[in-house]
Automatic annotation (TrEMBL):
Keywords: Membrane, Transmembrane, Transmembrane helix. This is Uncharacterized protein. The keyword Membrane applies. The chain crosses the membrane at residues 16-40, 52-79, 91-113, 145-164.
C-alpha cells in the first residue's frame, strides 16, 4: 500500500508564505478597523435596524471592497517572481477561510448551547469588519447563521484583488 502523497508537501512554501501575508494583511486591516471605530461599525446606523440578510450583504460588500484593494496592493508591493504568487494563492485563501469558519462555527454553537453572547467577542477581535456589526445586531435565531459568509469573504476578496492585479500585469 503505497500512497503517492507520502513524502510530498501538501502545503507548499508558496502557500505558507501567502498565508502569512494574508494573516498579516488581515491583522493590519483589523487593527485599523478597531482603532478607527472602536467596538462600533460604520454601517451600524445604516443597516442596524434592517433585516439580517441586508446587514450581511451590506457588510460583505464593504469588506469585499476593502480586502480586494488590499490584495491588489499586495501584488504591487511584491517585488519580483510574481508567478510564485499564483502557485499558492488558492491554498492560502482556503486555509484562511477554514480558520475563520472553524472559529465562527465554534462561537455560533457555543452561543446557542450556553445562551451567552460573550463568545462573539473572540470572533469580533478575530474578524472585526464583520464581528463588530455582528456583535451589536446578532440575535439568537437561525437567520444569524447567514453571517457564516463572514468566514469566507476576507480570503476570497484578498485572492480576488491579487488575481486582478496579476491579470493586469500579465502574469495570469
Amino acid at each position: 500500500m503505497s500512497d503517492s502523497r507520502i513524502g510530498k508537501k501538501i502545503i507548499s512554501s508558496h502557500s505558507l508564505l501567502l498565508l502569512a501575508v494574508f494573516v498579516v494583511s488581515h491583522l493590519a486591516i483589523s487593527i485599523v478597523q478597531l482603532m478607527m471605530y472602536g467596538g462600533g461599525h460604520p454601517l451600524t446606523k445604516l443597516v442596524g435596524s434592517l433585516p439580517i440578510f441586508v446587514q450581511v450583504i451590506a457588510c460583505s460588500i464593504y469588506a469585499f471592497v476593502i480586502y480586494s484593494v488590499i490584495g491588489y496592493l499586495l501584488v504591487i508591493a511584491y517585488p519580483r517572481h510574481k508567478e510564485n504568487l499564483v502557485k499558492g494563492l488558492d491554498r492560502a485563501a482556503l486555509i484562511l477561510a477554514i480558520i475563520f469558519l472553524v472559529v465562527f462555527l465554534f462561537a455560533y454553537i457555543y452561543s446557542w448551547i450556553t445562551i451567552r453572547h460573550n463568545m462573539w467577542v473572540i470572533y469580533t477581535f478575530l474578524n472585526p469588519i464583520f464581528g463588530t456589526l455582528m456583535f451589536t445586531t446578532m440575535k439568537p435565531d437561525w437567520m444569524s447563521l447567514l453571517w457564516i459568509v463572514s468566514a469566507i469573504i476576507p480570503s476570497v476578496s484578498l485572492a480576488f484583488g491579487m488575481f486582478l492585479r496579476l491579470k493586469h500585469e500579465g502574469v495570469v
